[in-house]
Structures
1.
Amino acid sequence: MPLALQNLRFFDGADPKHLQALEEGSRLKRYGASEILAYEEDDLSRVYFLLSGEAKFYKVDRFDNEVFLYSLESQALLTNIGSLDCDTISCYSNIEFLTPSEVVSFDLTLFKSCVRSDMALLINLVNMLADQKQLVECTVNMGMIFDVTAKVAKMLSEHLDLFNSLKKQEISYRLNIQPATLSRVLAKFT
């Protein structure tokens, strides 16, 4: 299996003969922290996978404030493929890199052809898209259903290592709350 595809778990179990054309059309690119991969409403003709690093997904509200949705780390599918019948992929959020990152991309037409011809890849794609759907669902729940205290409690309960590794400013950004509010909630917990 070619090098770029060997580094991506998505291609585990795939028939190497199906991957030849896909590998030839692949592009490997490095991004620095704060570089943008795509903006909301962009139409993409390539499928992007994050090999290493971290990318955040966010939207911009009517007051030009960033609304953090979620972040993805290594081995993640960065583009949301709505259907194997579409000729472009529409972005529903902005994608910005939080750390220096390495991304491999594939021509959408070749990617769809490869996935259609290999059952292992089709299953892997369905699983990755289900994971993306779960992230979006959690984002909606956090934003619409949870109050501030529940947001902080959920992060402490489910992502304690991440909580401990980030500064308060970054935690409040990821929870879409003000830093002072985070301090008040933590003081209440204490």
Note: Residues 148-189 form one domain.
2.
Amino acid sequence: MSLYQTVYLGLGANLNDPIDQIHHAIAALKALPDTNSEVKVSTLYSSKPMGPQDQPDYVNAVACIHTRLQPLDLLALTQKIELDLGRIRKDERWGPRTLDIDILLFGEQVLNLPTLSVPHYDMKLREFVIYPLLEIAPNLLMPDGLAIKELQNTVPLNGLTKI
């Protein structure tokens, strides 16, 4: 029997009632197989889009789950949640979307696979990841030993606001 891993997930949406999309995603995370149904979730935040600015602001949150799933199995299930909630995958990077679920951290693991990089490749630069993560895990250490608290000194809020 494998042990539970603590996994942090970034949630984001800016189409089709984004707050509702995030709430549906959280409900789906609670129902994942081999995963504890208790999901810790940050406050919802409003953030400016990363890419093209001619799209609505995003609603973001960070969730913490405890799972026995393997990383690629969790990735497949989170992508299914995205699709079930109307996500259409396009080549456009940073475009508008109904839901985005990113695996930010998976225990202490460091993965560089063709379909999954953990820690998430850009999480240390994203205010909509760092501040919600600080809220639910203020003493978190990244796999490289960097304290999440240290990142708030280098990542500006950039208009990030609690909803």
Note: The chain has a mean pLDDT of 93.
3.
Amino acid sequence: MAYSSDIAFTDVVKSIQSRKGSRDLYAQMEQNGSWDTEIMPDIAAYIADQQSFFLATANAEGQPYIQHRGGPVGFLKVLDKKTLAFADFKGNKQFISQGNLSENSKSFIFLIDYTNRTRVKIWGTAKIVEDDTQLLTELMPEDGTYRARPEQVLKFTVEALDRNCPQHIPQRFERNDVERMLSEKDAQIAQLEERIRTLTMKTE
């Protein structure tokens, strides 16, 4: 690949970009350094704030599959500038992602933050690690409050990543954040009601 974005911008894709008028924009992006190939501090911080993402794989025949992965905030860990990993919790035991990765290591991670209307796309390869109990233990939540049962580790090697614009992302809020904001608002209302009560008593 001449540029890191060539992992997605194939010759066919570039031809379509040329036909639809966006090739010059992306050619300039390529010449200015193209997409990142390592996890920079801002992306590491973004990943640490997430509690959900989507993992894409495909089998040897190219049949794609997308699976949601969720856990406590920060369960997707940055091991180094090129490596992500997470404890793969026990689920419905279909093992489609694991089967796909056993014959096609190419993978993709899609992270979206609805609250801040941001998203990050990460291309790379992935593998399942079944026999590293120490790493699995290190990837589990430290406080032990998350009740999911870990089964194995998924390690993801980053090849390229791209930050997307917020266009068309609906703004949504996590339940815990909404409950916290409502609690703060209730506390403010209670304080104001108490001040009103106090002022009323002084004027009587």
Note: The first strand starts at residue 52 and ends at 58.
4.
Amino acid sequence: MRTFIIAGLGNPGPQYQWTRHNAGFLFLDRLAHLENSPLNRKSFAGLAGEWSYRDSRHVLLKPQTFMNLSGKSVMQALQFYKLPLSQLIVVHDELDLPFGAVRFKQGGGHGGHNGLRSIMEQLGKGDFLRLRIGIGRPPHGDTVNYVLGSIPPEQMEQLPRVLDGGLEMLEMMLDQGLPKAMSLFNNKNFLEG
């Protein structure tokens, strides 16, 4: 089984911890907690850990560079482990998906997401795998304040279900490949049923 770098995007610091933009951090924190794989090594301008899954070890990475410089951290990890882009999974918040939806996407643009933009600038292209965690769009107006806003209490209660769904998708992708994971999960909302 191949080794992946699984990079969750977010902003460091307590004021950002529970914001929508930190969905990638929250996902990795959940994975680290459930799988007992602490993210406590300071490396690659981030916090890193190892996740042993089946017969392979994956690198977990939370860049601590702030969102718009995430690419520096991801690039350092890829170079250190000498891995191709095909072995990078970036976990990030997604405005274009409703809360409760988690989707895999292979390649594509950055869609205005500063973390993805930074990674693509560093890597020179965008053909890596993304695990997109839906945060929905604000009904009107400013997306910046929305993504940096705190996750509302009713969504906080439901968040573990959504993140666990994402972890289930990730494990399915590692076990049975991306097409299978996408066909089973990409039309699902983890808050329904």
Note: The chain has a mean pLDDT of 95.
